Amino acid sequence: MEPATQDGDHRVSRRARCAEAGPSAERVSASTDAVPVGKDDDGPMPLRVVLVDDDERFRAVARRALVAEGIDVVADVECGEEVQDAVATWRPDVLLLDIGLPGIDGLEVARQLRAKGGGPVVILMSSRDAAYGRRVAEGLAAGYLRKEELSLTAIVELAGPS
């Protein structure tokens, strides 16, 4: 955990880092093997996912685990402010969205996407308990996953078949 600031908000330094990090390309990484939208290769298209979490280590571990299960993680995003651009660019089937992001948090991002309509299936994530997750996801997202439970099976159960 980062040190607290004078106002007691340990997230201020992460928020500032995200806001000052420069061009969005520095905070969004894309898969080097992502298939452009619309390309057909004779087989079923893998589930396309954008992963949003401010913890770089979690994103790396989650990406490896999801790719090993056949999911196409087309991009991962560090900040809530970058989600709209990533969704417009990569057009994922599913957005895996951490609730506790610096700056614009995951709940606000989910509200914005819901108001806009026509976007990916949103699944909220956190390390908090399932009861909390179900409560905050209601009306905002397809569902909630504890980060420890992230898998293809869990995603498909919430998102439905692609």
Structural features, described:
The protein is globular and about 35 Å long. It has six helices and six strands. It has a single domain, classed as Response regulator (Rossmann fold). With 162 residues, the chain is of the alpha/beta class. Helix 2 (56-68) links the parallel strand 2 and strand 3. The termini are far apart. The protein has a six-stranded mixed β-sheet, with helices on both faces. The model is unreliable at 1-13, 22-27 and 34-40 (pLDDT under 50). The longest helix is centred in the middle third of the chain and has 13 residues, at 56-68.
Task: Using brief descriptors, characterize the structure shown.
162 residues; alpha/beta; Rossmann fold; 6 strands
- The number of helical runs is 6
CATH arch. level architecture: 3-Layer(aba) Sandwich
* Number of strand segments: 6
CATH topology: Rossmann fold
Our count of domains comes out at 1
Please compute the radius of gyration using only Cα atoms. Answer: 15 Å
| Helicity level | 25-40%
**CATH-level-4 superfamily name:** Response regulator
Beta-sheet strand percentage?
15-25%
Shape: globular
H and E string: HEEHEHEHEHEH
Instruction: Report the CATH C-level class.
Output: Alpha Beta
Structural class: alpha/beta
End-to-end gap: 37 Å
Identify the strand order in the major beta sheet: 1-3-2-4-5-6
Secondary-structure blueprint of this entry?
Elements lengths: L11 H9 L7 E3 L17 E5 L3 H13 L3 E6 L5 H8 L3 E5 L7 H11 L4 E6 L3 H8 L5 E4 L5 H8 L3
Parallel strand pairs: 2-3, 2-4, 4-5, 5-6
Antiparallel strand pairs: 1-3
